[in-house]
Amino acid sequence: MRLLLVEDDRLLAEGLASQLEKAGFSVDITRTAKEAVILGEQEEYKAGVLDLGLPDGNGLDVLRKWRSSKATFPVLILTARGDWQDKVNGLKAGADDYLAKPFQTEELIARLNAIMRRSEGRVQSSVKAGRFELDENRQCLKVDDGSEHSLTGTEFRLLRCLMGRPGHIFSKEQLMEQLYNLNESPNENIIEAYIRRLRKLVGAETIATRRGQGYLFNDAV
Amino acid sequence: MRLLLVEDDRLLAEGLASQLEKAGFSVDITRTAKEAVILGEQEEYKAGVLDLGLPDGNGLDVLRKWRSSKATFPVLILTARGDWQDKVNGLKAGADDYLAKPFQTEELIARLNAIMRRSEGRVQSSVKAGRFELDENRQCLKVDDGSEHSLTGTEFRLLRCLMGRPGHIFSKEQLMEQLYNLNESPNENIIEAYIRRLRKLVGAETIATRRGQGYLFNDAV
DNA sequence: CACTAACCTGAACTCTTTCTGAAAAATACC
DNA sequence: GGTATTTTTCAGAAAGAGTTCAGGTTAGTG
């Protein structure tokens, strides 16, 4: 779950990032409008959190540039308390939601999940597919027969990505982008290694390979 | 732009509806949870506005019933001022946004546009011809009888070319140009080889040969 | 009717991608 | 500081896609 956080207050940014990472996101931070535009256009994020007050430009301009390019990930904007006009302008510029400072991180996470769920075309809050169900809170996998298996962080994030859209083919590159941010980018074989482990849990036939294209979660099994 | 407004306060509902209609929406109003569930499941709405306080049931239950059926349109929920728990519950139940009462209609409209834009953002492209349909996303071939067959990259590109213009004759040279760039130019027999493979999938009569001219996809079969 | 060019066919070959098991490195936990 | 867990890397094996080839068929032509 890759996320772009655009926030110039370094302390706030890093505090938020650490909490978001605990919630399973992989966070890139930038403090300038200029860099935000470039990152948003070039990288593949699942969502963006955008502070409107930036040192080198207006956050709304960043948003507009994203929207006029191919950066279509959902964006949540952070506004000063009660700044009514900013909200409406932001929503008109293509934002998907806003949050007024100060806010609780819990709410930020809930809202991010909501806008991402929507953008992924998923409407249910629990991730179910086929005979399996992913428990977001306990980070474990439940099977139809009542059995349960706990997952490591990476296993969980990868499986959530696949199960979030059963039948959809995810390329290895896409999966890499979901699991890792700019700083960390291990060998692409890592995906194969994790796919193998997941297959041991859910059965080999449940995660199908489309050679040259990617992997998909097969919920029809 | 059809919209479902679930609100038990008749005065508020009608005032809102009239403003939403000015903004270009076509609004259905219902005042009960029971009717809301039925309407949401049976009609085709672009979005829903849902008040959580209803006389005959909780709005969240309505939302959950929609989400567990095929009612996947984006939903904005209306909550009492500052009712923090309702918001999070609503978002978790699959709502796309919320608005605390009292609110300005301008903001409601801006937010509705935001969530609709997002939900429409996904376009699934597919090519249909005869009894067959080509799924661009999953790179697979679907047949009328419900069966499905995944394709390799080259199979897919060739078939998409032919199915993109049923009845049109493509010469082998044209097909070569579609499949390969200047650097790679294999033996022209490669086309014959792939045509053969495709015929095994769609039936020999579906791809006709025009000796000396080329091949065509026959959608009249 | 015989000839030829175009097309069909099945199998073999090459090359790339993916799988696999194990081991090394990093990290978290006590 | 040591141990357990998790993440990452590696290299050989296996599988699959792409391509070629040799020979068989067929449709058109004079």
Structure characterization notes:
2 copies of one chain form a homodimer. Chain A is an alpha/beta fold and 221 residues long. Chain A folds into 2 domains: 2-120, Response regulator (Rossmann fold, 3-Layer(aba) Sandwich); 151-217, Orthogonal Bundle (Arc Repressor Mutant, subunit A). The first copy, chain A, has helices at residues 10-22, 33-42, 59-68, 84-92, 105-120, 153-164, 172-179, 189-202; strands at residues 2-6, 26-30, 47-51, 53-54, 57-58, 75-79, 97-100, 127-129, 132-135, 140-143, 148-150, 207-210, 214-217. Chain A has a 5-stranded parallel sheet with strand order 2-1-3-6-7, with helices on both faces. At the A-B interface, helix 4 and helix 5 of A face helix 4 and helix 5 of B. The structure holds a DNA duplex (30 and 30 nucleotides).
CATH superfamily of the largest domain in chain A: Response regulator
Gyration radius of chain A, in Å = 18 Å
In oligomeric terms, what are we looking at? Answer: homodimer
* Topology-level CATH name of the largest domain in chain A: Rossmann fold
Work out the helix count of chain A. Answer: 8
